[in-house]
Write a structure and sequence with these properties.
Radius of gyration: 21 Å
Structural class: alpha+beta
Helix content: 40-55%
Order of helices and strands: HHEHEEEEEH
CATH class: Alpha Beta
Number of strands: 6
CATH topology: Nuclear Transport Factor 2, Chain: A
Shape: globular
Strand content: 25-35%
Length: 182
C-alpha cells in the first residue's frame, strides 16, 4: 500500500511539472510575441499608438542613457518613441542580431545569480537584437545593438522597462556618413 502511494505521488508530480512548464512556455511566448507586435511593430510601422499598447499606464522606465537613475514613466517613453518614429525610416529589428556564438533573442528566468536569488517567471524577459534603418534628414544608415529587460503583469502589459544601449552611437553613425559622403 505504501509503495503504491509513493508511485501514485510520483506520477502526480511528473504530470504537474510539465503542465506548469508548458503554461509558463505559453505565457513566455505570448509576452515576447507581444513585444514584437507592439514595440517592434509600432516603431517599424510608425504607429505610436500600437507601440504604447504594450505598456501599462503605470510603467516604470529606466532609459538607455544615463540620467542619474531617475525612473521615468509612460509620457517620457512616448516622447522617446515618437522621436525615433519621426526621425527614422526603413526601421527594422533583427531579433538576436549581434550575439556572438549564439542564437535566440528572448530569454526568461535565471538559474544563477550573484545574490543567490533565482527566478523562473515567464513574465520577466530579456530581449536582444539590432535595430537598423535610415535617418530621414540625411539618409544615413544606422545599426543599434539593443538589450532590454521587460516585466509583464497578469494583463500582458509591461510594468517595468529597463534598457541598455547607446543612443549616441546613432549620432556618431550619422556624422561619419556625412563626413564620408560630402
Amino acid at each position: 500500500m505504501c509503495f503504491a502511494l509513493v508511485i501514485f505521488s510520483a506520477c502526480i508530480n511528473i504530470r504537474t511539472e510539465p503542465e506548469k512548464m508548458n503554461d509558463d512556455q505559453i505565457r513566455f511566448e505570448k509576452n515576447w510575441k507581444s513585444f514584437e507586435k507592439h514595440h517592434v511593430g509600432g516603431v517599424e510601422n510608425k504607429d505610436l499608438n500600437l507601440f504604447l499598447e504594450l505598456y501599462a499606464d503605470s510603467v516604470k522606465w529606466s532609459p538607455p542613457n544615463w540620467n542619474n537613475n531617475i525612473i521615468l514613466g509612460k509620457e517620457e517613453l512616448k516622447a522617446a518613441a515618437k522621436n525615433y518614429i519621426d526621425n527614422f525610416e526603413n526601421v527594422k529589428f533583427t531579433p538576436g542580431g549581434g550575439i556572438i556564438g549564439g542564437e535566440g533573442a528572448y530569454w526568461a528566468g535565471s538559474t544563477f545569480s550573484d545574490t543567490g536569488k533565482t527566478n523562473s517567471s515567464p513574465d520577466v524577459i530579456r530581449i536582444y537584437g539590432v535595430w537598423s534603418g535610415n535617418h530621414i534628414e540625411t539618409g544615413a544608415p544606422f545599426h543599434l545593438k539593443f538589450y532590454v529587460i521587460q516585466q509583464f503583469n497578469e494583463d500582458g502589459k509591461v510594468v517595468v522597462l529597463n534598457e541598455w544601449f547607446d543612443p549616441s552611437s546613432i549620432d556618431d553613425q550619422i556624422a561619419q556618413y556625412l563626413t564620408e559622403n560630402n
